Amino acid sequence: MTTTKKPATKKPAAAKAAPKKTAAAKPAIKKPAAKKPVGPIQVDALDAHPEFDLFTYCELSGETRIEHDLLEELEPRFDTWAEKYLRAYKITDPAAPGEGGHIILWLEEPVEEEIEGIWQDSPGAGMAFHNLAIHMVMSAAQNVVPELADKGCAPLPKPTAGILKAFEKLGLIWNKEGTVNRQFAVFTRMPYSEGCSICILRPKCPNASDD
Ligand code: SF4
Known about the structure:
6 helices; two-stranded antiparallel ribbon; alpha+beta; elongated; 211 residues; binds iron/sulfur cluster
């Protein structure tokens, strides 16, 4: 018996799914990175307490001893200047590196005039009081930024545009040489950070270190 083989029914090939038309991928538009909101500059008066230290003063003056009479003039002058003419502020600029904190402190103009007057009478005494003013602003800076005492020097950062405006409001003018219009002044970061590496005097400073 022969059987006739049913011709195999060929399953119709499954219709190939027509490729779905996908919308052409749009090139991703890169949003500009959102800028971190920058808060306002803050200026706060500080209470800095400088202390007269005979050893530091002698070291600064390059002297090994101080005449008793001179010492009797230096100490009261130190106290009077600190009370009447020392100004100290913390300026915080959120746009500045790190925490943005800085201190600026200075002795007001009458101290400069007083020293100039002493200088006219006696250059030696003028120099002694000039050194006293330097000792005062450094001691005041060390009082609010204690690390400066170990360093023996205050790294001078480049002020931001915001800090320059704050200076103006305080009656200070920044000079491109890295000074303000007061003879005895210290400007540095608060809290202390990075040492000589942030100091704009570094290229010409013989005492610069790699801290
Ligand atoms: S570079 Fe010179 S001036 Fe500046 S912090 Fe260092 S030692 Fe002081």
